[in-house]
């Protein structure tokens, strides 16, 4: 508690300042807390849609974002799947990139140093084909200067379990999350849930039991496209992940469910392409949101969302955007939210 | 440095069946563009289509207004939507992107090989070659039928010799561009040095690549690909390259291309 004598006289200092130090008109506090992780605003660029951050420097100032998540990192570099890797679908797209990435060592030696002092939260996305690989990558990243958090991608096929994704088996989720938690004790741990499961809240609870700080959801939905003329799948990999506005209602429901059932802060995503979408996810329980496919068709869209959310809050009389999280008004007679996140 | 500009439509001309020539005003892009580069155009307003479409820069118009032209053919929903943009509308335009052509060295004759709408990339290259005082190129241009051959006036006005081919024989040589290219390559010992610049459908590029490598003639291929972002982040547009001991290698058409040496890619 500050003592009265420490306080600046009223009217001499803007009461709320943006993180970059610029005074704002009738400041809306955009900062949000996700467990141990504080972000300057609720917009985070999603993994796989933002490269390693530097690719967007011609288009936007990274300081204007709440944060970004790197392309998924594995222990060794991966070259990914053969083309065609993507296919546009109604209001969405399928991708089967095959987790291509530079590998954790090259990330640490080449990518991360270029991002030092970039002024936004850098979240490293981690995956592996075995639990040992997840652990090894996480251990290597623990304590890396400039990293704000880890995000575990549990949608990777588990080669020791016949290629089934880690995230579809709650006992496996608990085990992997606990092992990574031990390997990277210094970083906030975000666990990214796959929607390709009967009840995403069960996987979310397993992640909480394993020691997750935050849940991010959803990853892409499995889907496919067929070329009628050739009678072949469009993607060389046959199956891909669906993203974009097409999945928004599905993702919104899953965020609502996980927020009410699990009791961890939620970082929601799925087809968000305007401020209204982001705000709906916050009402459903997201403390912050990720934007993914939007970065492909509108490279400055993420920072536009930050400005639009601020404008919306100002016009709606919301002084702190974090106050919106979980304020969905449910019809009377429905059970109240079992937890506050 | 690429820019993302809401570019006003200055003209939008119909060039025969399904072909259009779009003139956009986007000075920052016009100033930086080089032959062989492309822009990502957002064709509609909503989510249908969702993604931008990569388009070769056909020309940068002379003058200070900073206008570029895009020559395209309706092949699907994106291009159909684009074709409905009236004069005065704005089209979100991101570019210039990718690496352009390397101009042929002095004393080398450029052979331009175009298939179908692949012709769209060549007016800019012809003007760049003229500006750099290189040898006049020869254009070999193939399409399905006579009515699909477009922009011939542009090349005629610049005294670019043309050899045409149509699949149905309605104009020029009947068959594919390789029917014209092959005898030319066979005669190469008697002519000056040459370099091939090719753009068109993948089967054509594949055929041109094989002939060029076989004849030992340098060849640059401008590739097309499904390209969700155009700026190197989605990794969706890759092309296969000659493998190493660890297996296949993939390179991004948007960032490392769209122009590749014939020996750099496997089609």
Secondary structure layout plus pairing:
The complex is a heterodimer of chains A (about 350) and B (about 270).
Chain A lengths: L31 E3 L2 E3 L3 E3 L21 E3 L16 E4 L2 E4 L8 H11 L6 E6 L4 H11 L5 E7 L3 E2 L5 E2 L4 H14 L5 E4 L7 H11 L3 E4 L3 E3 L2 E2 L4 E2 L6 E4 L4 H14 L4 E3 L6 H10 L1 E6 L2 H4 L3 H16 L25
Parallel strand pairs in A: 3-4, 3-18, 4-7, 7-8, 8-11, 11-12, 12-17, 17-18
Antiparallel strand pairs in A: 1-2, 5-6, 6-16, 9-10, 13-16, 14-15
Helix pairs in contact in A: 2-3, 3-4, 4-5, 5-6, 6-8
Chain B lengths: L2 E12 L4 E7 L1 H6 L5 E4 L11 E4 L2 E2 L6 E7 L3 H7 L6 E8 L11 E7 L6 H10 L6 E6 L8 H6 L4 E5 L6 E2 L3 H9 L7 E6 L2 H14 L3 E4 L15 E7 L2 E6 L6 E3 L6
First-last Cα distance of chain B: 30 Å
Could you state the order of secondary-structure elements of chain B as H and E? EEHEEEEHEEHEHEEHEHEEEE
Average pLDDT of chain A, to the nearest integer? 91
Largest interface, C-beta within 8 A: A-B, 35 and 32 residues
Brief write-up:
Chain A is of the alpha/beta class. Chain A is 27% helix and 19% strand.
Can you describe this structure?
The complex is a heterodimer of chains A (341) and B (267). With 341 residues, chain A is of the alpha/beta class. Chain A has helices at 104-114, 131-141, 170-183, 200-210, 248-261, 275-284, 294-297, 301-316; strands spanning 32-34, 37-39, 43-45, 67-69, 86-89, 92-95, 121-126, 147-153, 157-158, 164-165, 189-192, 214-217, 221-223, 226-227, 232-233, 240-243, 266-268, 286-291. Chain A has one domain (39-324): Aldolase class I (TIM Barrel, Alpha-Beta Barrel). In chain A, strand 14 and strand 15 form a beta hairpin. Chain A has an eight-stranded parallel beta barrel with strand order 3-4-7-8-11-12-17-18, surrounded by five helices. Chain A has a four-stranded antiparallel β-sheet with strand order 5-6-16-13, with no helix packed on it. Chain A has a two-stranded antiparallel ribbon with strand order 1-2. In chain A, helix 3 packs parallel to helix 4, helix 5 runs parallel beside helix 6 and helix 6 packs across helix 8. Chain B is of the alpha/beta class. Chain B has two domains: 3-97, Translation factors (Elongation Factor Tu (Ef-tu), domain 3); 109-264, 3-Layer(aba) Sandwich (Rossmann fold), CATH 3.40.50. Chain B has a seven-stranded antiparallel β-sheet with strand order 4-3-7-1-2-6-5. A seven-stranded mixed β-sheet of chain B has the order 11-10-9-8-12-13-16, with helices on one face. In chain B, helix 5 runs parallel beside helix 6 (202-215). Chains A and B meet through strand 5, strand 6 and helix 7 of A and strand 14 and strand 15 of B.
